[in-house]
Amino acid sequence: MPERTGLKILDMISGGAKVIDLEHDRFPGMPAFDPVKPAMEYFLYRQHENSYSTSQEKRRSSSSGLIVMTDQSGTHLDALCHQAYDMKMFDGTPINSEVETPWGFKKHDSAEIPPIIRKGVLVDCTELLGDPLPENHEVTLKEFQSVIKHEGVSFGKEDVILLRTGYGKYWNDFSKYRNAAGVSGEVSKFLSDKCYAVGADNLAWDVPGKVDSDSGVIQPGHLHLIAKSGIYIMENLFLEELAKTRTYEFLFIALPLKMRGTTGTPIRPVAIL
Predict the structure, then answer these.
(1) Which tens digits make up the pLDDT trace of 18-69?
(2) What is the 3-class SS of the chain, one letter each residue?
(3) I want to staple 220 with a disulfide (CB 3.0 to 4.6 A). Which of 28, 34, 124, 212 is the partner?
(4) Is this prediction's pTM over 0.90?
């Protein structure tokens, strides 16, 4: 990254650039993919009334809570250890007891993911396919390329692609959100050498449960992008406010948490226009 990139970002913001939050709020009962529940539980185990005392000179009190959640819930980024093909990660690292331990992974975990500060590209499929897309629809390569042409955008290997299905608006209605459209295996295979990371406003980038006719697996995007190509996937993005601006290319920033051993990490992604 150029030496003065950070200063340029500050100049952009102070000069009137708009910062758009791409993260959903987190709460007990929030949407979660069935294999990775609980999404989040919160317990306020230390409360003000338990620490406050009128005998204290300054009468200060405090509270703190316990958060219980999986590393694959909420707006998050998949680490590269999250997926494997024939028991090997994207770079040939074998899945064995030296790498995969009861306390987490020793390689390609969330702690290895660097801060992401890159060009972002919004591929808003709702502009051509309806808002939202049909339930459980898999965006085809033809549809994907049509949207790119319609928007007039371009992207390269260092860029981040965010695909909008329109289901982010249903974050508080799991009955609708769980049936969100997703990305077909052919699109993920097409992107497997063309970007740095991808993300979508749904549970899994792919459509959960659908078997890909080409690869024979469910969630083919996780196969082609993570397991075979080492490309990051972000899930549960909030793209509604960004879509309203009709801005398709922007500065994308996401900061992963340095959590050793984990298969994913919460992120607070933003778009700077």
Answers:
(1) 999 999 999 999 999 888 889 999 999 999 988 887 777 778 889 999 999 9
(2) CCCCHHHHHHHHHHCCCCEEECECCCCCCCCCCHHHCCCCEEEEEECHHHHCCCCCCCCCCCCEEEEECCCCCCCEEECHHHCCECCECCCCCECCCCCEECCEECCCCHHHCCCEEEEEEEEECHHHHCCCCCCCCEECHHHHHHHHHHHCCCCCCCCEEEEECCHHHHCCCHHHHCCCCEECHHHHHHHCCCCCEEEECCCECECCCCECCCCCCECHHHHHHHHCCCCEEEECECCHHHHHHCCCEEEEEECCCCCCCCCEEECCCEEEC
(3) 212
(4) yes
